[in-house]
């Protein structure tokens, strides 16, 4: 009898080993690819604050616009929504007794509903708050203070009953340094008998506290045009002082939807005038509010503007 040596595995055993090995390899490859895809999604996700609209600074521009052209001119006003670009304006209370001072408190929250606490300083303040009644009366330009938990607060008096609009104008700073400029709006209410006032007729000149304020320029829908404001006192041109880093601040609100434009001027006076570049997004009536400072006191001149 001859020695045939050790017996080798039969064909069925080999086929079983190959199938099991293939399954194990497929599982390991799938697990590895899954980890690679998950890591890529986590590290490649864009920051919520990475979308940059208007850079902060004192150069003339429209601030708080919902959309802008390639040249930075506003095509739609801001302040029409409570949420935009992943951020939400969240007031802690919205009802205030008419004619009595209360405290307006609110947060700016990100997409995960976390309070935002990093804001850029734009025109000397991290946040500008504009409050006006829906008939465009009672204009106020306020500067809340922020607590460590991201809650903003400011004393507020809604002088007359009615529905009011509050605009928070700010620039969020992301962890990577990217900035997002936004204007978010929310409604406030002062219960009582609401008696809306008709909007005054268009005029290019008005008086406030003994100062005569007038402007030159003809705004056109969808076009960027200059508006030059001159402030005169009893003895001629008023000695304008810088307020929040500029010689004047101009807010324009559109009648009807209360769309918001915050327009900043040239850094220096031009022939003794405050020069702005204004882009009105469409035809309609607008109310202009010009803040200016003389002898350390801030005053507001108001105008009605009709854009054909």
Q: How would you describe what is shown here?
A:
This protein is mainly β and 308 residues long. 11% of the residues lie in helices and 41% in strands. The protein has 1 helix and 21 strands. The strands form 5 sheets. Strands 1-18-17-20-21 form a 5-stranded antiparallel β-sheet, with no helix packed on it. It has a 5-stranded antiparallel β-sheet with strand order 4-5-6-10-9, with no helix packed on it. The radius of gyration is 30 Å and the shape is globular. It starts with 10 loop residues before the first helix and ends with a strand. The N terminus is likely disordered.
Q: How many H/I helical runs? A: 1
Largest sheet: 5 strands, antiparallel
Fraction of residues in β-strands: 35-45%
The quaternary organization reads as: single chain
Strand order of the largest sheet: 1-18-17-20-21
Low-confidence stretches: 1-9, 16-59, 64-74
Query: How many β strands by DSSP?
Result: 21
- Report the order of strands and helices: HEEEEEEEEEEEEEEEEEEEEE
What distance lies between the first and last C-alpha atoms, to the nearest angstrom?
Answer: 115 Å
Average predicted local confidence, pLDDT:
83
What would you report as the Rg, rounded to the nearest angstrom? 30 Å
Secondary structure class reads mainly beta
Helix content: 10-25%
